[in-house]
Amino acid sequence: MADRLTQLQDAVNSLADQFCNAIGVLQQFAPPASFNNIQMAINNDQPANPTEEYAQLFAALIARTAKDVDVLIDSLPSEESTAALQAASLRQLEEENHDAAARLEEVVYRGDMLLEKIQSALADIAQSQLRTRNGAPSQPSPAES
User: Fold this and answer.
1) What is the per-residue DSSP string for 8-50?
2) Are 95 and 52 contacting, i.e. CB atoms less than 8 angstroms apart?
3) What is the CA angle 76-80-86, rounded to 5?
């Protein structure tokens, strides 16, 4: 995943692309206009003009990308984040990491102890089954006495 500045640059580039595409498409499909006789009314018998649809489409794309740019800018670290604040935050994270590591070691130790008990019980069960199959009387294991 890219860092925030790269994401912001990509969003700004996308916004610039959308502006260029919008202008190009609108110029391509815009009806010719005369500067000598500016008509205020559009003839009803002319075919539907796709320019309005394109304008709405590009307006929505540009608005969404601009909103993404704003969100990315807001997610950048503020100027108030000084080196001392960052160092304090790192120290706190290191302490939390150390505590989590200690808890993990304890859980792993208890898991290992439980695994040993389970393996011992499985070994006892296997021994009992072997004795039963061989016809020997079942004798309690030393752990059971």
Assistant:
1) HHHHHHHHHHHHHHHHHHHHHHSPP--SSS--SS--TTSPPPT
2) no
3) 80
**SS3 at position 106:** helix
Distances (CA, A) of 43 to 20, 46, 48, 49: 30, 6, 11, 11
Residue pLDDT, tens place only, 41-79: 444 444 456 677 888 888 899 999 999 999 988 888 777
Q: What is the pTM of this model?
A: 0.44
Helix, strand or coil, per DSSP, at residue 76: coil
Q: To which residue do tokens 């005369």 refer?
A: 34
| Tokens (6 digits) for 112 | 């290992």
Please tell me the distance from the alpha carbon of residue 129 to that of residue 123, in angstroms, as a whole number: 10
